[in-house]
Amino acid sequence: MVTKQEIEQLAILAKLSFSEQEIEELIVDMDEIINFANQVNSFSYEQEETLDNRVKLSELRQDEVKESYSSEVVTSNVASENGFFPVKRSNNK
Amino acid sequence: MRELITSIAQDLRAGKVTSVELTQKYIEQINAKNPELNAYVSTTFDLALQQAKLADEKIKSGNADILCGIPMTLKDNISTTGLETTCCSKILKGYVPFYDATAWASLKSKGAVLLGKTNMDEFAMGSTCETSCYGATKNPIDPTRVPGGSSGGGASAVGADMAVYALGSDTGGSIRQPASFCGVVGLKPTYGAVSRYGLIAYGSSLDQIGPIAHSVKDCAIVYDAICGKDCNDATSIDGAKNTANNLTQDVKGLKIGIVKEFFEGLNPEIAKPIKDSIEFYANNGAEIVEISIPTLKVALPVYYIIACAEASSNLGRYDGIRYGYRVDKYTDINDMIKKTRTEGFGKEVQHRIMLGTYVLSSGYYDAYYKKARELRVKICQDFDNAFSKCDVLIAPTVPNTAFPLNYTCNNVIEMYLSDICTVPINIAHLPAISIPCGKDKNGLPIGMQIIGNKKCEQTILNTAYYFEQNNTTKN
User: Fold this and answer.
1) Per-residue model confidence as pLDDT tens digits over B191-221
2) What's the whole-model pTM score?
3) Between vectors from CA B417 to CA B401 and to CA B343, what angle results, nearest 5°?
4) Closest approach of chain A CAs to the CA of B305, in angstroms?
5) How far is B369 from chain A, CA to nearest CA, in Å?
6) Segment B362-395, tens digit of pLDDT
7) Which residues of A touch B334 (CB under 8 A)?
8) A34 part of contact set with chain B, CB < 8 Å
């Protein structure tokens, strides 16, 4: 069974936060999903070959220096300051 | 069945209608129906009319692609320069890409007319199109029911004649399932056949862009326009091409595999039209082969482990720093990131991120993620084995028809179970098409799925085309 401590640790890793009630609900949901996922451990089969990623990358393009997007374009989705992404140290008004 | 693209292209060239007139008609249709169906989350009518005007000039010059001037739509996880692309998530509200997805760029270069962006489950995580931050989309056949997901907006738009065709994305069935629920045709190409550059990622080893349209030929035409190797996507391949011009109508000698695991426990109301369709093929010269793929029993948990693991990594980039939503109040940058993600992601997305983080975490990685990847190899081998005995497989697309809006599942897993026929195809990187083959007692469409080996889009399109053109009993 997933523990509250595990949920809290996972939340830290996932950069999410949950209320106490949400954690209780998540314990129930995660337990169901993990029990469901555990089928992979109870299924028996013969592993004939070594692990093969199966996603074959096609020929990679040459590592050449090319024109890229300007900093104005890259920062166009925020109110950029001098080409930087501004994040105040604290905005706790 | 309506071969809209071909007939519209003919009318445009014959001068019976202009692209501007056609686009205006679709705009009127969207204005009339979208308030109820909520298929579109944003519309681009001014742009569409400009594109239509240019398309009319190109058509007059005699140098236009078949898709030139035809009004269409894109799922809101496909990047469009200058147009908001949100994945129907609060965390991406306001995000405007500065590049086009390759698939969209291909269609744009051929003169496609973009009517707007369609609704979807948030970050493509869902099967009902109800987890969108813009609210649920409704099924055009019965608006008390879901259109399916996650490409529910596109399927609903096509089904309600609010677009000639749509581009969706399919990670675990998200083109095929809504196509089945809305009574239209949906094609998921071989993994890599269509570039994923510009498709906002959910599960990178599973995602694939594909068309939703009213007919097999329309899907083939759109697929031909968007397929091909792309230097911006290292997983893209040179797959099947020029399928629309090579559609044949002959199934004599075609070996059709029936995978028994897809039919175990299947609702008889769903099974009947599928079995009737198989009989139709057999009566017309196809050979039916019984196949068993025991690893299908674990395909769903394998899918959810791999998809959620990849999603937890892919969605790590959403932190409020460079684009999208950012909370107003925070104590430091880590607090800002945590609060932005907590407020920005919906519940289903958060759950899948948490599951993905769990299966990748120390102590659980071997038991879940590594094991799932090993089983994935086994599932792929089993499909390879199946295709050594047959040319295509036939299965239901979904074990049920469209469920009611706000349907409350007894538990979390119940909703996942409806993906049981579609996710194995994504796991094995195969192409598959869903076509309507019947209706249930409530008049809701039932979809049949035709699955092919890798790069065998032509074979599945031909098989589907034959059924569509010759089966008179499917309704």
Assistant:
1) 999 999 999 999 999 999 999 999 999 999 9
2) 0.96
3) 100
4) 7
5) 10
6) 999 999 999 999 999 999 999 999 999 999 999 9
7) 15
8) yes
